[in-house]
Design brief:
Shape: globular
Helix content: 40-55%
Distance between the termini: 65 Å
Structural class: alpha+beta
Number of helices: 31
Radius of gyration: 27 Å
Largest sheet: 6 strands, mixed
Number of strands: 22
């Protein structure tokens, strides 16, 4: 990988500039790290750092509210910010030619925010809606309960967003004082990654942020140390959920602690990847959990080693002891050499994948600099990973994975008897911890080349030696659109079952091979296609392609594995009921499409999935893997001719079995408004309102995309109207889909129930304005720049390119359609946008779905 090392420059005012130059792509990411977060707040001002972060883009002395986001989006870039317990980070990602604009905007945001009273009132209402919305999401609520239980003394126990009582009390004076105290150059680090000239960037920053007044020296508030609890703790709550959600966490270390790399490896062994112990033993072998995983959270102060699971209530009495057994096995038995190497390889692969984009490079450089002691922190971390052996891992596990360091937080369905008690989980945890067990001619880089095999299968290759990765995507025409109603969900189940075994390999064999390749391999199913996707380190390119071909062409669909996947799909369908936003989208799609397959859940229904088995998949596979409808795309550090030779020898023998399924009747837009509503145990109202859109190859698709871009994003009409002007709520989003049959263009908003009708009317007005041509050429040009810039940024990764080439080719657009996309978008005229908006978004043809709280008696 051709990357320069990180360069650190310090200015007289205390500002630090960390440069990670990389000429691999014409893009630049800037991240401005401010050393203040929610853990630095006083209890009475909880949430002020998050509210101040929101206000940084709500107007400065030079720019009006929303103008910064619009300027960045207008050049196809992205601007964002987030608050953590330890830092506040502002980021901008742009094509490198627009680096001065991004630097100017971030500088303006942190040095000159206005904190206008009206904007503050609206944004405070948005944050309060965000806090209330978290009540409806089980995993977010669970996370808040976990941190409150794990940190009763340390400020990590408070939500980053604050609490309703404290946020409601924050006024202009509090925000101004907090900003004056912390937003000073001596408290900031600017990270710049990508195509950047170091000397020019040092000079450019020096003319702005690097020459700003340093401000007084202020030490961070002394954070209280979390005392050792000395005993196991649990918090069990009844909620409106379908399954049991649980988090078992152990007090652990800070990011800079020498034990952090070992805890990362232990988390990988336990619960990351298909070959991890929780996935293999609890899910695949015993079928005790719907899902399980592990992660090591290592912030500035001591963090948590977290183990999570979702379990059916009826299986909890077996699942929880089994989960604890796997956790404490790490303390008793040394990790196998193969497991250790798998996890080391996975962490290295994660690093390489992150470095594929400039935003990933900036995030990684900023993280290690801020949390691990400076630019050399990453090198020390990687060296520690290489030194660790099984004995060292077991020693670290014994230090931290102890019942007296643990807290369990769980949610169980409120409409059923509690499946556990605090005494039962404490006894089970401690028992598992004390059990004793025995140890049992090179082509020009960048050229996209298409070859068609004799059987009709198409192979697309693009050589990209810049990063040592290979991405492969097989796309097959069909997907949800090809499913009969009685077998809804069969394509999803088939795609997931591909990796469950072949004629040569078991599911465990496949998972181990994938880990050894430093990659990933899984099936996918969409509305109009299905297939297989994989990535691996390029030094394993041959073995990776061989495994990919084996899984795609020769799956065995073992009965037991298929049964587990079927149970997983049914559990996932039940879990969807816990996500109100998802329920609203599903209701909208059902109302819009009716009997058309697009109106059904991609997973199917509980009834249809229950009727699918291994014999169904075995019969279906040769019928749907039709060579003439299949495209294989390979992108990365490969030799194109070698790939074509391999594919000819490996896939050339495929043949079609039977006729393709009949195409469904195309959906039609409703002749009049269709509105559906349902009540649910939620705190917020969730509204989706939209229109039938166009097909993926429609002649006016680019014009409709421009219209959609005018509505979307922080600079778009929907955000400006519904969130910034009217303050309906935190979540305002445009959903745009296309397919072989018409997709849709819809807006989704979450608001308080009292304002749901206002929100509905505002959406109708914004769509009607666009359909009526109420825009000018400048707004069209801004939307075009946003579309093209975002499209080009999205194609940084090999996997994204492989998906783009394969899907464009299989949908009939051609694998080189991406080259023409910018010209096609910029060629759209305002009149064509007006015609497309009038054709698709005309008043009187909308569909709306509303999910709201039950009315009180």
């Amino acid at each position: 990988m051709r990357r320069s090392g990180s360069l650190l420059h310090r200015y007289p005012n205390g500002l630090q500039l960390l440069l990670a130059p990389n000429p691999g792509a014409p893009a630049v990411a800037l991240e401005l790290w401010v050393r203040v977060g929610s853990a630095d707040e006083s209890p009475g001002q909880a949430g002020v750092s998050h509210l101040v972060e929101h206000m940084l883009f709500k107007g400065t002395r030079c720019r009006a509210a929303g103008e910064m986001a619009r300027e960045i989006e207008a050049v196809g870039g992205d601007v964002n910010a987030y608050t953590s317990p330890d830092h506040t980070v502002l980021s901008a990602v742009v094509a490198s030619r627009y680096t001065p604009l991004a630097l100017d905007i971030l500088t303006d945001a942190v040095l000159a925010p206005r904190f206008a009273a009206g904007e503050l009132e609206r944004e405070r209402a948005v944050v309060l809606d965000e806090i209330r919305s978290g009540e409806d999401l089980p995993q977010q609520y669970l996370a808040e309960q976990l941190f409150a239980a794990a940190y009763p003394t340390h400020p990590y126990g408070r939500p980053v967003v604050g609490r309703e009582s404290t946020v409601a009390a924050l006024d202009q004076g509090a925000c101004l004082e907090f900003h004056r105290r912390w937003y000073r150059p001596r408290n900031m680090t600017l990270v710049v990654a990508g195509e950047v000239d170091p000397a020019a960037m040092v000079a450019a920053v020096g003319r702005g942020l690097g020459s700003a007044p340093p401000g007084p020296r202020r030490a961070r508030p002394r954070r209280p140390r979390e005392p050792a609890a000395g005993t196991f703790r649990s918090v069990l709550r009844a909620r409106a959920v379908s399954e049991v959600y649980l988090e078992l966490a152990f007090s652990a270390t800070a990011a800079a602690h020498p034990d952090a790399p070992a805890l990362d490896l232990l988390a990988g062994v336990l619960g990351q990847g298909e070959a991890s112990r929780l996935q293999r033993r609890l899910k695949l072998e015993q079928n005790l959990v719907c899902g399980a995983g592990a992660a090591n959270y290592a912030p500035l102060d001591p963090g948590l080693f977290q183990v999570s699971a979702v379990v059916e209530s009826a299986r909890l009495t077996a699942a929880y002891p089994a989960l604890c057994e796997e956790v404490f096995r790490l303390c008793r038995e040394p990790v196998g050499d193969d497991e250790l190497e798998r996890c080391r390889e996975n962490l290295e692969a994660d690093r390489v994948y992150q470095l594929e984009t400039v935003e990933g490079q900036a995030q990684r450089a900023g993280h290690f600099h801020q949390l691990c002691g400076g630019p050399g922190g990453e090198a020390a971390y990687r060296a520690a990973l290489r030194r660790l052996d099984p004995a060292g891992l077991r020693a670290v596990a014994r230090r931290y994975l102890r019942p007296e360091r643990a807290v369990l937080v769980g949610l169980h369905p409120a409409d059923r008897p509690p499946p556990w008690t605090s005494a039962w989980v404490a006894e089970g945890t401690c028992r598992a911890a004390t059990i004793r067990r025995s140890r049992g001619g090179r082509r020009r880089p960048g050229e996209v080349v298409l070859r068609r095999l004799d059987n009709g299968l198409r192979v697309v290759v693009r050589e990209n030696p810049a990063v040592p990765l290979v991405a492969v995507r097989a796309a097959v025409l069909g997907g949800q659109r090809s499913e009969p109603a009685a077998r809804a969900g069969v394509c999803h189940l088939l795609s997931q079952a591909l990796v469950c075994g072949t004629r040569r390999f078991s599911a465990t064999d496949i998972a181990r091979q994938v880990d050894a390749l430093g990659g990933q391999l899984d099936g996918f199913a969409g509305r109009s296609s299905w297939g297989l996707r994989g990535e691996f380190l390029s030094r394993h390119r041959r073995a990776g392609l061989e495994l990919f071909a084996e899984v795609l062409c020769r799956p065995s669909f073992p009965a037991e594995e298929v049964a587990w996947l079927r149970d997983d799909a049914r559990a996932a369908l039940r879990l969807r009921k816990d996500d109100p936003a998802e329920l609203a989208v599903r209701a909208f799609e059902q109302a819009l499409y009716g009997a058309h397959p697009y109106g059904r859940d991609l997973l199917g229904s509980d009834r249809t999935v229950a009727g699918l088995d291994d014999a169904t998949l075995a019969r279906l596979h040769p019928q749907v893997l039709r060579p003439a409808d299949t495209v294989l795309a390979v992108v990365g550090d490969v030799d194109a001719e070698q790939v074509f030779a391999f594919c000819g020898a490996t896939f050339g023998g495929l043949s079609a079995a039977g006729a393709p399924p009949p195409a469904p009747a195309a959906p039609r837009r409703p002749p009049r408004p269709v509105e559906v509503a349902q009540e649910a145990p939620v705190a917020q109202a969730h509204l989706v309102l939209g229109f039938l859109g166009c097909q993926v190859d429609a002649p006016d698709r680019h014009a409709l995309r421009v219209a959609g871009a005018m509505l979307s994003g922080q600079g778009g009409r929907l955000f400006r109207r519904l969130r910034e002007a009217d303050g309906f709520g935190y979540a305002v989003e445009l959903i745009a889909t296309e397919g072989v049959d018409p997709g849709y263009l819809a807006a989704q908003v979450t608001t308080v129930p009292e304002r749901q009708e206002e929100a509905r009317q505002a959406l109708l007005e914004e769509f009607a304005a666009l359909a009526g041509g109420a825009f000018d050429s400048a707004e069209v040009a801004e939307a075009q720049r946003k579309l093209v810039g975002g499209f080009e940024l999205a194609l940084q990764e090999n996997a994204s390119q492989a998906a783009q080439f394969a899907l464009d080719e299989v949908y009939g657009l051609g694998c080189n359609a991406y080259r023409h996309y910018p010209d096609a978008v910029f060629a759209v005229t305002p009149r064509e946008v007006a015609e497309a908006a009038s054709r698709y978004l005309a008043p009187g043809h909308h569909v709306a779905a509303l999910l709201s709280p039950a009315a009180e008696n």
